[in-house]
Design goal:
This protein is mostly beta strands. It folds into 2 domains: about 400 residues, Peptidase/esterase 'gauge' domain (Methylamine Dehydrogenase, Chain H, 7 Propeller), CATH 2.130.10.150; about 55 residues, Type 1 dockerin domain. The chain has 3 helices and 40 strands. The strands form 11 sheets. Strands 7, 8, 9, 10, 11 and 12 form a 6-stranded antiparallel beta sheet that branches. It has a 5-stranded antiparallel beta sheet with strand order 1-36-35-34-33, with no helix packed on it. About 50% of the residues are buried.
Amino acid sequence: MNTPLFLCLALLTPATLAGGPTLVIQEGDPAPGTPGDLVRSLGAPFTNGLGQVGFTGSLEGEDGIEHFVWFNDGVVWRSSDGAPFTLSGAESTMGISDDGDFIYSPSTDGDDSVWTSAGLLLREPDPAPGFPGQFISFTSRPQMTAGGAATFIGGVSTVMGGSTSTRVLFRVGDEGPEPVFATGDAVGKFTIDTPSGVDFDYHFSDNGRHHIHVLVMDAPSTADAFIYVDGRLVARESEPTGDGDLWSAFDNVSINDAGDYLFTGNTDGAIGPDEFIAHNGVIVLREGTDVDGVPLTGGSLRAVSLNNLGQAVHLWGVTSGDEYLFIGTASDLAATSTRLLGTGDEIDTDGDGTPDAEVVDFNASGVIGPGLSLAEDGRVFVEVDLLPLEGGEEREAILRLDIGTRCPADLDSSGDVGFTDLVSVLAAWGPCAGCPQDFDEDGIVGFTDLLTVLASWGPCRG
């Protein structure tokens, strides 16, 4: 969850984005960290607190096809690293920490499982932590905070190999996975509905102190969906939105270190303005709104992410079939959102200053995970499909958008540039490609980067 960029927004014109987005990797490219294996597929990107990126995907090389985990600038884990287990597949949802740890969900010898950088964490049908005499029936939607706290959704069965009777949000502690809550648990005056009331849409803040979740409660079906935030139920299906209609459904969620949060969904209002983004329970953007010259007519919200600076990125599809990515101040998205990228935009993938590919699709989807992840250093990463302008087949790709930040030298996102930021630069001194301390992006943390910190010393200024 974060946001980085050094791209001037004025350059992001609807027609051409040459010199804007940076290609991280695309289908068919040799993957860094491998002996030349080629990328076959890519998953959704996720950032840590430093704006570094992680994602899963698949490779093809001399040894055949296998899946991988990417961290920052290359492949750090391959499914063959799990030997003697046979690993296959990988959910698109994953997570990385500031220290380079990761969590993801492959199949292990054909069974659902969760792995971290430390090895196998849990698999079907292991004994279910916190549920004596019961067994894991599935694992899904792994995430990790910047500090390294790992979470995932798991199913529990009363018999080995049986169907799911309880769905659980697990958090990984010092002793291994432990339940945060499960279906059948009480929250306020309601009980989480069995067997699947713990929804797959959830998020923890970078500091791990705040948690937002879509829950389905044991209540009438027209009023059983809720938004849970830090132990409270803050919104309920069929109750007033405060904007003239009623909450009807909830989808994507995001929360930051201050406990501010976003959630999306639909109201019972007229079709056209019924899809929304709400900030701290107040609707701040609706379908049908004109955003930076783009009418969200027939708008369908694909994904949303909130960072610790109070900025949000949001991705919409419209009636024409086009899709658009925006960034704005989370508390006032309708008035402040700026278009970053859209289908039909032409981009430069090889750095020669000339567009060579067209964005034809965004692959972010809140259905299979958060879909977007915005960091504080001015970068957002997106998974797209690109069509070469000279002809050829579409390719999956991960792009980095450098959108600028109010204070790049504020490495700890404290609002001030000070001693901890100086120490961070000194600790990273030397070759360090892709490091947030490398402000001039020359691949080395050195004297000019140190000068950036000293020139920015004190409170961040706009």
